[in-house]
Write a structure and sequence with these properties.
The protein is an alpha+beta fold and about 200 residues long. It is built from 9 helices and 8 strands. The protein folds into 2 domains: about 1-35, no CATH class; about 35-185, no CATH class. The chain has helices spanning about 5-10, 15-20, 40-50, 60-65, 110-120, 125-140, 145-150, 160-165, 175-185, and strands spanning about 1-5, 20-25, 30, 55, 75-80, 90, 100-105, 105-110. This is AbiEi antitoxin C-terminal domain-containing protein.
Length: about 200
């Protein structure tokens, strides 16, 4: 995946060859005509579209941190100020500090804690907990770090959702279905079930 105008300007491709052998996935961002873009490829493409200035966030960031159960076609979220995002990209005009950005697969990505902070605020509680369970299982993080971000951004949208979701995180959930069942039991007034209990065959 590459920026078309850069490739032409640098003499790596002619305009004719660019049109014939490649297709635009986002404005001026191309990949091979026959390629099926993965989430990782689309994340790189979205970052290139931003002029290499955006920070990958949300579900795309969670996937790049290793979280499972995220489809390749989810919108790529970027923290970057631009109101004219192409289809398949969501831009968020939000503050992000240096200590909330890391790198994954060569891209600037929100840290695991900042990713959890965003997911917990932006998604309905049930979905948020499932996504947070998967993120915690893939790349363990301290929930306390997420609470610190809530203190850093006291006026951020969705903090009420965050306060509901964070206490429900359980890295022992091996799938969204397990998360859903656990939340169903809790909603019914039962104690939170203990997950992944070792069983002795003897």
């Amino acid at each position: 995946v590459f920026i078309g105008s850069e490739a032409v300007r640098q003499g790596r491709l002619s305009p004719y060859r660019l049109r014939k052998r490649f297709r635009a996935i986002y404005p001026d961002v191309f990949l091979a005509e026959c390629a099926t873009p993965s989430l990782r490829t689309r994340s790189v493409a979205a970052w290139l579209w931003s002029g290499r200035r955006g920070v990958v966030a949300g579900l795309a960031a969670a996937a790049l941190h290793g979280a499972r159960w995220i489809d390749d076609d989810v919108p790529i979220e970027l923290i970057w100020r631009n109101q004219h995002a192409p289809a398949g990209v969501i831009t968020r005009n939000q503050r992000v500090q240096r200590d909330e950005v890391t790198r994954a697969v060569g891209l600037p990505v929100t840290t695991v804690a900042r990713t959890a902070f965003d997911l917990a605020r932006q998604l309905p509680t049930g979905e948020a907990v499932a996504r947070l369970d998967a993120l915690m299982r893939a790349t363990p993080f301290r929930v306390g770090q997420v609470w610190l971000l809530a203190k850093r951004y006291p006026g951020a949208r969705g903090l009420r959702r965050l306060r509901r979701a964070l206490p429900l995180i359980d890295a022992g959930a091996a799938s969204p279905r397990e998360t859903w069942l656990r939340l169903l039991l809790i909603d019914a007034g039962l104690p939170a079930p203990e997950t992944q209990i070792p069983v002795n065959e003897n």
